[in-house]
Amino acid sequence: MPSVSVGNVGQLAIDLVISTLDMPKVGYFYTDCLVPMVGNNPYATAEENSTELSINAEVYSLPSKKLVVLQIRSPFIKNKYRSFSQTVLSWVKSSKCARVILLSSSHAYQRDDQQLHSTPLRYLLSPTIQKTVGDQMQELNWKEMEKVAVYPEINNAEKVLHIPGGGITKLLFTESCSKGIPMAVLLKFCSEGDNIPDALALVNYLNEWLQLIKNEQSSSTTTTASHWKIPSSWKLLFGSGLPPALF
Amino acid sequence: MATFFGEVVTALSRAGVDEEEAEREETPEDLEIRRELEKKREVRVRWSPRPEPTPDAPLRCSRLVLSTGRNAVAFLSSFILDSVRWEVVGAVSLWNEWCRTLDATNVLPTDSFCLFYRLLSDPTVLLCQCNCCVAEDQQFQWLEKVFGYIQKKDLQVIILSTCPVTNYKTPESTLTLPSPFLKALKTKEFKDTICCPLLEQPNIVQDLPAAVLSYCQVWQIPAVLYQCYTDVIKLDTVTIETFKPVLSSKIMASLVKDVPESTEMLKKLLATNEIHNNIYT
Fold first, then answer.
1. Rounded distance, CA A49 to CA A202, Å?
2. Is the dihedral of CA B149, B150, B153, B158 positive or negative?
3. Which residue has the higher pLDDT, A75 or B258?
4. Residue A242: pLDDT band by 50, 70, 90 thresholds?
5. Which residue has the higher pLDDT, B207 or B280?
6. Is A190 inside a domain boundary?
7. Which of A77, A171, A194, B214 is most buried, taking the most CB atoms under 10 A from its CB?
8. Closest CA relative to residue B177, chosen from B186, B189, B164
9. Which segments of A130-214 are extended strands (E)?
Protein backbone atom coordinates (compact mmCIF):
# COMPACT_ATOMS: atom_id res chain seq x y z
CA MET A 1 0.00 0.00 0.00
CA PRO A 2 1.15 3.58 -0.41
CA SER A 3 1.56 6.37 2.06
CA VAL A 4 0.21 9.74 0.87
CA SER A 5 3.59 11.46 0.93
CA VAL A 6 5.76 14.03 -0.82
CA GLY A 7 5.34 13.85 -4.58
CA ASN A 8 2.65 11.18 -4.17
CA VAL A 9 5.43 8.77 -5.14
CA GLY A 10 4.03 5.80 -3.24
CA GLN A 11 0.64 6.20 -4.89
CA LEU A 12 2.17 6.62 -8.35
CA ALA A 13 4.26 3.49 -7.81
CA ILE A 14 1.15 1.57 -6.76
CA ASP A 15 -0.59 2.78 -9.93
CA LEU A 16 2.27 1.30 -11.97
CA VAL A 17 1.99 -2.05 -10.17
CA ILE A 18 -1.78 -2.27 -10.70
CA SER A 19 -1.61 -1.10 -14.29
CA THR A 20 1.30 -3.32 -15.36
CA LEU A 21 0.04 -6.49 -13.70
CA ASP A 22 -3.51 -5.73 -14.87
CA MET A 23 -4.78 -6.42 -11.37
CA PRO A 24 -8.54 -6.79 -11.04
CA LYS A 25 -10.37 -4.72 -8.45
CA VAL A 26 -11.70 -6.90 -5.63
CA GLY A 27 -13.13 -4.40 -3.18
CA TYR A 28 -13.41 -0.95 -1.68
CA PHE A 29 -11.75 0.38 1.46
CA TYR A 30 -14.75 2.52 2.38
CA THR A 31 -13.74 5.05 5.01
CA ASP A 32 -14.71 8.46 6.36
CA CYS A 33 -11.02 9.35 6.78
CA LEU A 34 -10.22 10.24 3.16
CA VAL A 35 -11.54 13.12 1.04
CA PRO A 36 -14.21 11.68 -1.29
CA MET A 37 -13.49 11.51 -5.00
CA VAL A 38 -14.74 9.47 -7.95
CA GLY A 39 -13.73 9.04 -11.56
CA ASN A 40 -13.85 6.45 -14.28
CA ASN A 41 -11.42 3.52 -14.35
CA PRO A 42 -7.91 5.02 -14.08
CA TYR A 43 -6.36 1.94 -15.67
CA ALA A 44 -8.65 1.85 -18.71
CA THR A 45 -7.05 0.47 -21.84
CA ALA A 46 -10.06 0.52 -24.16
CA GLU A 47 -13.58 1.92 -24.49
CA GLU A 48 -15.07 -1.24 -22.95
CA ASN A 49 -13.20 -1.09 -19.66
CA SER A 50 -13.17 2.68 -19.27
CA THR A 51 -16.57 3.07 -17.68
CA GLU A 52 -16.18 1.40 -14.31
CA LEU A 53 -16.39 3.90 -11.46
CA SER A 54 -13.43 4.16 -9.09
CA ILE A 55 -13.48 5.70 -5.61
CA ASN A 56 -10.80 7.06 -3.31
CA ALA A 57 -9.54 3.79 -1.78
CA GLU A 58 -9.75 0.45 -3.52
CA VAL A 59 -8.27 -3.02 -3.17
CA TYR A 60 -6.81 -4.99 -6.08
CA SER A 61 -5.62 -8.58 -6.06
CA LEU A 62 -3.53 -10.98 -8.12
CA PRO A 63 -3.72 -14.48 -6.64
CA SER A 64 -1.06 -15.84 -8.99
CA LYS A 65 1.49 -13.58 -7.34
CA LYS A 66 -0.20 -13.75 -3.90
CA LEU A 67 -0.41 -9.99 -4.09
CA VAL A 68 -3.05 -7.66 -2.67
CA VAL A 69 -2.74 -3.93 -3.26
CA LEU A 70 -4.55 -1.07 -1.57
CA GLN A 71 -4.57 2.17 -3.55
CA ILE A 72 -5.34 5.49 -1.85
CA ARG A 73 -6.28 8.35 -4.13
CA SER A 74 -7.00 11.30 -1.88
CA PRO A 75 -5.57 13.06 1.18
CA PHE A 76 -6.74 12.61 4.76
CA ILE A 77 -9.56 14.62 6.19
CA LYS A 78 -8.23 16.80 9.02
CA ASN A 79 -7.60 14.86 12.26
CA LYS A 80 -8.59 11.56 10.66
CA TYR A 81 -5.13 10.15 9.91
CA ARG A 82 -4.84 8.33 13.25
CA SER A 83 -8.23 6.72 12.80
CA PHE A 84 -7.21 5.67 9.30
CA SER A 85 -3.93 4.16 10.54
CA GLN A 86 -5.78 2.14 13.15
CA THR A 87 -8.36 0.90 10.65
CA VAL A 88 -5.85 -0.08 8.02
CA LEU A 89 -3.54 -1.84 10.47
CA SER A 90 -6.41 -3.71 12.05
CA TRP A 91 -7.53 -4.83 8.58
CA VAL A 92 -3.99 -5.92 7.72
CA LYS A 93 -3.65 -7.81 11.00
CA SER A 94 -6.98 -9.59 10.63
CA SER A 95 -6.25 -10.57 7.03
CA LYS A 96 -3.04 -12.28 8.24
CA CYS A 97 -0.80 -11.04 5.43
CA ALA A 98 2.64 -12.58 5.42
CA ARG A 99 4.15 -9.18 4.70
CA VAL A 100 2.90 -5.62 4.44
CA ILE A 101 4.89 -3.32 2.21
CA LEU A 102 4.45 0.43 2.52
CA LEU A 103 5.66 2.52 -0.42
CA SER A 104 6.54 6.05 0.59
CA SER A 105 8.79 9.04 0.08
CA SER A 106 10.57 11.69 2.11
CA HIS A 107 11.70 15.27 1.50
CA ALA A 108 14.96 15.25 -0.45
CA TYR A 109 15.98 18.63 0.98
CA GLN A 110 16.13 17.20 4.50
CA ARG A 111 18.92 14.75 3.66
CA ASP A 112 22.24 15.10 5.48
CA ASP A 113 25.62 15.10 3.72
CA GLN A 114 25.95 11.32 3.82
CA GLN A 115 22.51 10.77 2.36
CA LEU A 116 23.13 13.30 -0.41
CA HIS A 117 25.95 11.15 -1.77
CA SER A 118 24.32 7.78 -1.63
CA THR A 119 21.31 6.16 -3.29
CA PRO A 120 18.01 8.00 -2.67
CA LEU A 121 16.24 4.72 -1.85
CA ARG A 122 15.82 3.40 1.68
CA TYR A 123 14.08 0.59 3.51
CA LEU A 124 12.83 -0.12 7.03
CA LEU A 125 11.79 -3.45 8.55
CA SER A 126 9.63 -4.04 11.59
CA PRO A 127 11.06 -6.64 14.02
CA THR A 128 8.56 -9.31 12.90
CA ILE A 129 9.54 -9.13 9.25
CA GLN A 130 13.25 -8.60 10.05
CA LYS A 131 13.45 -12.28 10.96
CA THR A 132 12.18 -13.45 7.58
CA VAL A 133 13.59 -10.95 5.10
CA GLY A 134 16.48 -9.24 6.89
CA ASP A 135 19.00 -11.44 5.06
CA GLN A 136 17.45 -10.68 1.66
CA MET A 137 17.98 -6.96 2.27
CA GLN A 138 21.66 -7.66 3.03
CA GLU A 139 22.01 -9.62 -0.19
CA LEU A 140 20.33 -6.87 -2.20
CA ASN A 141 22.78 -4.43 -0.65
CA TRP A 142 20.01 -2.03 0.29
CA LYS A 143 20.46 0.90 2.62
CA GLU A 144 18.44 1.06 5.80
CA MET A 145 16.85 4.42 6.65
CA GLU A 146 19.19 6.20 9.04
CA LYS A 147 18.04 7.54 12.35
CA VAL A 148 18.73 11.21 13.03
CA ALA A 149 19.89 12.93 16.19
CA VAL A 150 17.11 14.54 18.20
CA TYR A 151 19.32 17.59 18.81
CA PRO A 152 21.82 17.63 15.93
CA GLU A 153 25.18 19.31 16.57
CA ILE A 154 24.39 19.48 20.29
CA ASN A 155 23.98 15.87 21.27
CA ASN A 156 24.38 13.14 18.68
CA ALA A 157 23.73 10.33 21.10
CA GLU A 158 19.95 10.21 21.09
CA LYS A 159 18.68 9.19 17.65
CA VAL A 160 15.15 8.80 16.36
CA LEU A 161 13.45 7.79 13.16
CA HIS A 162 12.47 10.88 11.18
CA ILE A 163 10.61 10.66 7.87
CA PRO A 164 9.78 14.26 6.91
CA GLY A 165 7.15 14.47 4.16
CA GLY A 166 6.29 10.81 4.62
CA GLY A 167 2.73 11.44 5.77
CA ILE A 168 1.71 8.64 8.12
CA THR A 169 4.69 6.42 7.22
CA LYS A 170 6.35 6.77 10.59
CA LEU A 171 3.06 6.30 12.44
CA LEU A 172 2.22 3.13 10.52
CA PHE A 173 5.74 1.80 10.93
CA THR A 174 6.01 2.43 14.68
CA GLU A 175 2.53 0.97 15.22
CA SER A 176 3.49 -2.10 13.19
CA CYS A 177 6.61 -2.53 15.30
CA SER A 178 4.62 -2.46 18.52
CA LYS A 179 1.76 -4.61 17.20
CA GLY A 180 3.95 -7.33 15.70
CA ILE A 181 2.87 -6.61 12.12
CA PRO A 182 5.44 -7.69 9.50
CA MET A 183 5.86 -4.33 7.76
CA ALA A 184 8.54 -3.23 5.34
CA VAL A 185 8.77 0.40 4.29
CA LEU A 186 10.37 1.26 0.96
CA LEU A 187 10.89 4.93 0.38
CA LYS A 188 12.61 7.38 -1.94
CA PHE A 189 13.97 10.83 -1.20
CA CYS A 190 12.34 13.26 -3.61
CA SER A 191 10.88 16.72 -4.07
CA GLU A 192 7.55 17.89 -5.46
CA GLY A 193 7.49 18.22 -9.22
CA ASP A 194 7.28 15.67 -12.02
CA ASN A 195 7.45 12.59 -9.84
CA ILE A 196 7.05 9.96 -12.54
CA PRO A 197 10.80 9.15 -12.56
CA ASP A 198 10.67 8.85 -8.75
CA ALA A 199 7.73 6.46 -9.00
CA LEU A 200 9.58 4.36 -11.57
CA ALA A 201 12.67 4.27 -9.35
CA LEU A 202 10.60 3.21 -6.35
CA VAL A 203 8.70 0.53 -8.22
CA ASN A 204 11.95 -0.84 -9.66
CA TYR A 205 13.32 -0.92 -6.12
CA LEU A 206 10.27 -2.93 -5.03
CA ASN A 207 10.73 -5.19 -8.04
CA GLU A 208 14.34 -5.97 -7.09
CA TRP A 209 12.89 -7.67 -4.04
CA LEU A 210 9.52 -9.02 -5.12
CA GLN A 211 10.34 -9.78 -8.76
CA LEU A 212 6.85 -8.81 -9.90
CA ILE A 213 7.95 -8.32 -13.49
CA LYS A 214 11.00 -9.46 -15.42
CA ASN A 215 13.71 -6.84 -15.68
CA GLU A 216 15.98 -6.79 -18.68
CA GLN A 217 19.47 -5.76 -17.67
CA SER A 218 21.21 -3.91 -20.44
CA SER A 219 24.81 -5.10 -20.59
CA SER A 220 26.25 -1.76 -21.71
CA THR A 221 24.65 0.44 -19.06
CA THR A 222 23.73 0.03 -15.42
CA THR A 223 20.12 1.00 -15.98
CA THR A 224 17.45 -1.65 -16.20
CA ALA A 225 14.91 -1.38 -18.96
CA SER A 226 11.64 -2.25 -17.31
CA HIS A 227 8.24 -2.68 -18.74
CA TRP A 228 6.00 -0.72 -16.40
CA LYS A 229 2.74 0.28 -18.04
CA ILE A 230 1.83 3.93 -17.55
CA PRO A 231 -1.90 4.12 -16.69
CA SER A 232 -4.20 6.15 -18.94
CA SER A 233 -5.12 8.39 -15.98
CA TRP A 234 -1.57 9.81 -15.96
CA LYS A 235 -2.20 11.95 -19.00
CA LEU A 236 -2.60 15.69 -18.54
CA LEU A 237 -0.84 15.55 -15.14
CA PHE A 238 0.12 19.18 -15.48
CA GLY A 239 -3.21 20.51 -16.70
CA SER A 240 -5.08 21.01 -19.95
CA GLY A 241 -3.63 22.15 -23.24
CA LEU A 242 -2.54 25.75 -23.71
CA PRO A 243 -4.74 28.34 -25.44
CA PRO A 244 -3.31 29.01 -28.93
CA ALA A 245 -3.83 32.76 -28.38
CA LEU A 246 -1.05 32.64 -25.78
CA PHE A 247 1.48 32.52 -28.60
CA MET B 1 12.71 25.95 -0.88
CA ALA B 2 13.71 29.35 -2.30
CA THR B 3 11.38 31.44 -4.43
CA PHE B 4 12.38 33.67 -7.33
CA PHE B 5 12.73 36.59 -4.93
CA GLY B 6 15.23 34.76 -2.78
CA GLU B 7 12.95 34.23 0.23
CA VAL B 8 12.97 30.82 1.81
CA VAL B 9 9.52 29.32 2.21
CA THR B 10 8.29 25.99 3.45
CA ALA B 11 7.32 23.86 0.49
CA LEU B 12 3.76 22.61 0.76
CA SER B 13 3.76 18.86 0.87
CA ARG B 14 1.14 16.61 -0.68
CA ALA B 15 1.75 14.37 2.32
CA GLY B 16 -0.91 16.39 4.09
CA VAL B 17 0.27 15.35 7.51
CA ASP B 18 3.18 17.23 9.04
CA GLU B 19 5.39 14.78 10.91
CA GLU B 20 5.72 17.20 13.81
CA GLU B 21 1.94 17.49 13.92
CA ALA B 22 1.59 13.73 13.89
CA GLU B 23 4.08 13.30 16.74
CA ARG B 24 2.69 16.01 19.00
CA GLU B 25 0.42 14.49 21.62
CA GLU B 26 -2.92 16.21 21.96
CA THR B 27 -3.18 18.17 25.21
CA PRO B 28 -6.48 18.03 27.14
CA GLU B 29 -7.14 21.62 25.98
CA ASP B 30 -6.57 20.62 22.34
CA LEU B 31 -8.92 17.68 22.80
CA GLU B 32 -11.57 19.94 24.34
CA ILE B 33 -11.27 22.46 21.48
CA ARG B 34 -11.44 19.69 18.90
CA ARG B 35 -14.54 18.19 20.55
CA GLU B 36 -16.28 21.59 20.66
CA LEU B 37 -15.46 22.19 17.01
CA GLU B 38 -16.75 18.76 16.06
CA LYS B 39 -19.99 19.45 17.91
CA LYS B 40 -20.34 22.80 16.14
CA ARG B 41 -19.74 21.15 12.77
CA GLU B 42 -22.21 18.35 13.35
CA VAL B 43 -24.70 17.76 10.54
CA ARG B 44 -28.30 17.47 11.71
CA VAL B 45 -31.32 16.40 9.69
CA ARG B 46 -34.82 17.31 10.83
CA TRP B 47 -37.39 15.03 9.20
CA SER B 48 -41.03 16.10 9.30
CA PRO B 49 -43.01 12.95 8.47
CA ARG B 50 -44.54 11.48 11.62
CA PRO B 51 -43.49 9.02 12.82
CA GLU B 52 -39.95 10.24 12.13
CA PRO B 53 -37.88 7.83 10.09
CA THR B 54 -35.21 5.84 11.94
CA PRO B 55 -32.45 3.55 10.65
CA ASP B 56 -34.70 0.59 11.53
CA ALA B 57 -37.81 2.15 9.99
CA PRO B 58 -36.45 4.25 7.12
CA LEU B 59 -38.43 6.53 4.81
CA ARG B 60 -39.69 4.62 1.78
CA CYS B 61 -37.76 5.82 -1.26
CA SER B 62 -37.64 4.64 -4.86
CA ARG B 63 -35.98 7.73 -6.35
CA LEU B 64 -33.71 10.37 -4.86
CA VAL B 65 -33.00 13.44 -6.98
CA LEU B 66 -30.19 15.55 -5.55
CA SER B 67 -29.01 18.93 -6.78
CA THR B 68 -25.91 20.65 -5.44
CA GLY B 69 -24.89 24.21 -6.19
CA ARG B 70 -27.07 27.15 -7.17
CA ASN B 71 -27.47 26.41 -10.89
CA ALA B 72 -28.48 22.79 -10.39
CA VAL B 73 -30.82 23.88 -7.57
CA ALA B 74 -32.35 26.56 -9.82
CA PHE B 75 -32.80 23.96 -12.57
CA LEU B 76 -34.85 21.70 -10.32
CA SER B 77 -36.78 24.67 -8.91
CA SER B 78 -37.74 25.76 -12.43
CA PHE B 79 -38.41 22.47 -14.15
CA ILE B 80 -39.48 20.04 -11.42
CA LEU B 81 -40.38 21.54 -8.04
CA ASP B 82 -43.52 23.45 -7.14
CA SER B 83 -45.50 24.05 -3.97
CA VAL B 84 -48.56 22.16 -5.24
CA ARG B 85 -47.12 18.75 -6.08
CA TRP B 86 -44.26 18.69 -3.56
CA GLU B 87 -44.02 19.09 0.22
CA VAL B 88 -40.99 19.71 2.44
CA VAL B 89 -40.13 16.62 4.48
CA GLY B 90 -36.67 17.32 5.76
CA ALA B 91 -34.09 20.01 6.40
CA VAL B 92 -30.36 19.68 6.99
CA SER B 93 -28.73 22.15 9.35
CA LEU B 94 -24.98 22.58 9.37
CA TRP B 95 -22.31 25.17 9.91
CA ASN B 96 -18.83 25.49 8.44
CA GLU B 97 -16.43 28.28 7.48
CA TRP B 98 -18.34 28.92 4.25
CA CYS B 99 -21.96 28.87 5.32
CA ARG B 100 -24.61 28.32 7.92
CA THR B 101 -27.86 26.80 6.66
CA LEU B 102 -31.13 28.63 7.23
CA ASP B 103 -33.79 27.15 9.47
CA ALA B 104 -36.60 28.32 7.20
CA THR B 105 -38.19 26.30 4.39
CA ASN B 106 -39.19 29.37 2.41
CA VAL B 107 -35.85 30.08 0.82
CA LEU B 108 -34.28 32.37 -1.77
CA PRO B 109 -31.72 31.31 -4.38
CA THR B 110 -29.07 33.29 -2.50
CA ASP B 111 -29.72 31.57 0.85
CA SER B 112 -27.76 28.59 2.17
CA PHE B 113 -30.07 25.66 2.62
CA CYS B 114 -30.43 21.92 2.19
CA LEU B 115 -34.04 20.79 1.97
CA PHE B 116 -35.80 17.52 1.20
CA TYR B 117 -39.08 17.45 -0.74
CA ARG B 118 -41.45 14.56 -1.35
CA LEU B 119 -43.81 14.12 -4.33
CA LEU B 120 -47.38 14.05 -2.98
CA SER B 121 -48.66 11.77 -5.75
CA ASP B 122 -45.82 9.28 -5.13
CA PRO B 123 -44.31 9.66 -1.65
CA THR B 124 -41.41 7.38 -2.54
CA VAL B 125 -39.92 10.12 -4.75
CA LEU B 126 -37.58 12.39 -2.79
CA LEU B 127 -35.84 15.49 -4.04
CA CYS B 128 -32.99 17.25 -2.26
CA GLN B 129 -31.93 20.82 -2.98
CA CYS B 130 -28.48 21.36 -1.50
CA ASN B 131 -27.61 25.05 -1.86
CA CYS B 132 -24.85 25.12 0.73
CA CYS B 133 -21.28 23.98 1.02
CA VAL B 134 -20.95 20.63 2.76
CA ALA B 135 -17.33 20.58 3.97
CA GLU B 136 -15.05 17.55 3.57
CA ASP B 137 -15.39 16.49 7.18
CA GLN B 138 -19.19 16.81 7.00
CA GLN B 139 -19.82 14.84 3.83
CA PHE B 140 -19.68 11.41 5.46
CA GLN B 141 -21.99 12.60 8.23
CA TRP B 142 -24.42 13.95 5.60
CA LEU B 143 -24.43 10.52 3.95
CA GLU B 144 -25.07 8.72 7.22
CA LYS B 145 -27.85 11.08 8.29
CA VAL B 146 -29.56 10.93 4.89
CA PHE B 147 -28.97 7.45 3.49
CA GLY B 148 -29.20 5.97 6.96
CA TYR B 149 -32.81 7.14 7.14
CA ILE B 150 -34.08 6.27 3.66
CA GLN B 151 -34.84 2.86 2.27
CA LYS B 152 -32.12 1.60 -0.07
CA LYS B 153 -33.87 -1.38 -1.61
CA ASP B 154 -34.87 -0.60 -5.23
CA LEU B 155 -33.53 2.92 -4.83
CA GLN B 156 -32.26 4.95 -7.79
CA VAL B 157 -30.27 8.13 -7.33
CA ILE B 158 -29.65 11.03 -9.69
CA ILE B 159 -27.30 13.88 -8.81
CA LEU B 160 -27.02 17.21 -10.62
CA SER B 161 -24.02 19.39 -9.98
CA THR B 162 -21.87 22.11 -11.54
CA CYS B 163 -18.16 22.62 -11.68
CA PRO B 164 -15.87 25.34 -13.11
CA VAL B 165 -14.77 24.47 -16.64
CA THR B 166 -11.17 25.27 -15.65
CA ASN B 167 -11.24 22.03 -13.62
CA TYR B 168 -11.85 20.02 -16.77
CA LYS B 169 -8.72 18.36 -18.13
CA THR B 170 -8.48 18.15 -21.89
CA PRO B 171 -5.62 18.08 -24.42
CA GLU B 172 -7.04 21.25 -25.98
CA SER B 173 -7.26 24.44 -23.94
CA THR B 174 -10.38 24.89 -21.80
CA LEU B 175 -10.78 28.33 -23.44
CA THR B 176 -11.72 26.71 -26.76
CA LEU B 177 -14.27 24.34 -25.23
CA PRO B 178 -17.93 25.05 -26.03
CA SER B 179 -18.97 25.47 -22.38
CA PRO B 180 -21.23 24.93 -20.59
CA PHE B 181 -21.41 21.21 -21.28
CA LEU B 182 -22.66 18.12 -19.47
CA LYS B 183 -20.69 15.01 -18.49
CA ALA B 184 -21.90 11.94 -16.59
CA LEU B 185 -20.58 9.35 -14.18
CA LYS B 186 -22.58 6.30 -13.15
CA THR B 187 -22.31 3.44 -10.70
CA LYS B 188 -21.98 -0.16 -11.84
CA GLU B 189 -25.64 -0.92 -11.05
CA PHE B 190 -27.02 1.96 -13.13
CA LYS B 191 -28.28 0.41 -16.35
CA ASP B 192 -30.49 3.15 -17.87
CA THR B 193 -29.27 5.23 -20.80
CA ILE B 194 -27.44 8.40 -19.94
CA CYS B 195 -28.12 11.62 -21.81
CA CYS B 196 -24.59 12.88 -22.34
CA PRO B 197 -21.04 11.52 -22.73
CA LEU B 198 -19.30 9.95 -19.75
CA LEU B 199 -16.61 11.92 -17.96
CA GLU B 200 -13.30 10.86 -19.48
CA GLN B 201 -10.09 10.04 -17.62
CA PRO B 202 -8.18 11.70 -16.05
CA ASN B 203 -11.08 13.88 -14.83
CA ILE B 204 -12.43 13.32 -11.34
CA VAL B 205 -15.33 14.59 -9.28
CA GLN B 206 -15.06 15.79 -5.68
CA ASP B 207 -17.23 17.14 -2.85
CA LEU B 208 -20.73 15.98 -1.99
CA PRO B 209 -21.55 14.52 -5.43
CA ALA B 210 -18.41 12.33 -5.16
CA ALA B 211 -19.33 11.29 -1.62
CA VAL B 212 -22.85 10.27 -2.72
CA LEU B 213 -21.64 8.47 -5.83
CA SER B 214 -18.95 6.60 -3.83
CA TYR B 215 -21.58 5.52 -1.32
CA CYS B 216 -23.86 4.29 -4.10
CA GLN B 217 -21.03 2.44 -5.85
CA VAL B 218 -19.94 0.66 -2.67
CA TRP B 219 -23.48 -0.24 -1.58
CA GLN B 220 -24.52 -1.18 -5.13
CA ILE B 221 -27.22 1.45 -5.57
CA PRO B 222 -27.91 2.50 -9.19
CA ALA B 223 -26.88 6.14 -9.37
CA VAL B 224 -25.91 8.67 -12.01
CA LEU B 225 -24.23 12.05 -11.68
CA TYR B 226 -24.69 14.76 -14.30
CA GLN B 227 -21.98 17.36 -13.90
CA CYS B 228 -22.23 20.63 -15.80
CA TYR B 229 -18.89 22.27 -16.55
CA THR B 230 -19.46 26.01 -16.82
CA ASP B 231 -17.42 29.20 -17.03
CA VAL B 232 -19.98 31.25 -15.12
CA ILE B 233 -19.88 31.18 -11.33
CA LYS B 234 -23.17 32.90 -10.61
CA LEU B 235 -26.75 31.92 -11.43
CA ASP B 236 -26.99 31.76 -15.20
CA THR B 237 -29.73 30.65 -17.66
CA VAL B 238 -27.36 29.07 -20.14
CA THR B 239 -25.81 26.90 -17.43
CA ILE B 240 -29.20 25.97 -16.01
CA GLU B 241 -30.57 25.03 -19.42
CA THR B 242 -27.57 22.77 -20.07
CA PHE B 243 -29.22 20.30 -17.69
CA LYS B 244 -32.33 20.06 -19.95
CA PRO B 245 -31.37 16.71 -21.60
CA VAL B 246 -31.69 15.15 -18.14
CA LEU B 247 -35.45 15.80 -18.23
CA SER B 248 -35.91 13.10 -20.84
CA SER B 249 -34.21 10.44 -18.68
CA LYS B 250 -36.29 7.64 -17.16
CA ILE B 251 -35.89 8.90 -13.59
CA MET B 252 -36.94 12.47 -14.37
CA ALA B 253 -39.43 12.25 -17.24
CA SER B 254 -42.51 11.77 -15.06
CA LEU B 255 -41.59 14.67 -12.76
CA VAL B 256 -41.33 17.50 -15.30
CA LYS B 257 -43.58 20.61 -15.00
CA ASP B 258 -45.25 22.39 -17.96
CA VAL B 259 -42.92 24.44 -20.11
CA PRO B 260 -44.56 27.89 -19.58
CA GLU B 261 -44.55 27.31 -15.80
CA SER B 262 -40.84 26.44 -15.94
CA THR B 263 -39.90 29.46 -18.03
CA GLU B 264 -41.81 31.75 -15.68
CA MET B 265 -40.13 30.22 -12.62
CA LEU B 266 -36.69 30.53 -14.19
CA LYS B 267 -37.24 34.24 -14.94
CA LYS B 268 -38.43 34.84 -11.37
CA LEU B 269 -35.44 33.03 -9.85
CA LEU B 270 -32.96 35.01 -11.90
CA ALA B 271 -34.68 38.29 -11.06
CA THR B 272 -34.68 37.51 -7.30
CA ASN B 273 -31.05 36.55 -7.54
CA GLU B 274 -30.17 39.82 -9.27
CA ILE B 275 -31.85 41.87 -6.55
CA HIS B 276 -30.16 40.03 -3.74
CA ASN B 277 -26.81 39.94 -5.47
CA ASN B 278 -26.58 43.71 -5.69
CA ILE B 279 -23.33 44.75 -4.08
CA TYR B 280 -25.04 47.70 -2.43
CA THR B 281 -27.51 45.60 -0.44
1. 28
2. negative
3. A75
4. confident
5. B207
6. yes
7. B214
8. B164
9. 148-151, 155-160, 183-190
Residue B4 belongs to some domain of the structure: no
What domain range includes position B76? 38-48+56-169+176-269
Assigned domain for A222 exists:
no
Give the number of domains in chain B.
1
The 10 Å CB-count burial string (b at 16+, else e) for B64-83 is bbbbbbbbbbbbbbbbbbee
Asked if residue B229 is part of any domain, the answer here is: yes
How many CB pairs below 8 A link A and B? 146
Residues of chain B contacting A46 with CB distance shorter than 8 Å: none
User: Taking 80 as the threshold, does the pLDDT of residue A19 lie above it?
Assistant: yes
Mean pLDDT (whole number) for B23-31? 77
At A225 the pLDDT is 47
Is A87 an 8 Å CB contact of chain B?
no
B198 in a structural domain: yes
Give domain status of residue B16, yes or no: no
CA gap B193, B206 in Å, rounded:
23
Within 8 A of A78 by CB-CB distance, chain B residues are: 136-137
- Average pLDDT score, chain B: 87
Q: How many CA atoms lie within 13 A of B234 on its CB side?
A: 10
pLDDT in tens, A208-227: 999 999 866 544 444 444 68
Q: Which residue of B has its CA nearest to A163?
A: B19
The pLDDT score that the predictor gives to residue A219 is 47
Q: Please, which pLDDT band fits residue A236 given cuts at 50, 70 and 90?
A: confident
Question: Mapping DSSP to helix (H, G, I), strand (E, B) and coil, where does residue B221 land?
Answer: coil
CA A230 to chain centre: 16
Q: How many angstroms separate the CA of residue B212 from the nearest CA in chain A? A: 9
Interval B153-191: pLDDT, tens:
999 999 999 999 989 999 888 878 888 999 999 999 999
Can you tell me the ipTM of this complex?
0.91
More confident residue, B128 or A242: B128
CATH number at residue A34: 3.40.50.10900
Is A210 domain-assigned?
yes
A229 inside domain? no
Q: What does the DSSP 8-state code read for residue A247?
A: -
Which conformational region is residue B232 in: left (phi greater than 0), alpha (psi within -120 to 50 degrees), or beta?
beta
**pTM, 2 dp:** 0.90
H/E run at residue B30: helix B28-40
How many helices (H) and strands (E) are present in chain B, helices listed first?
8, 9
**Count of structural domains within chain A:** 1
CB atoms B201 and A32 under 8 Å: no
A34 is in which domain, residue-wise? 9-215
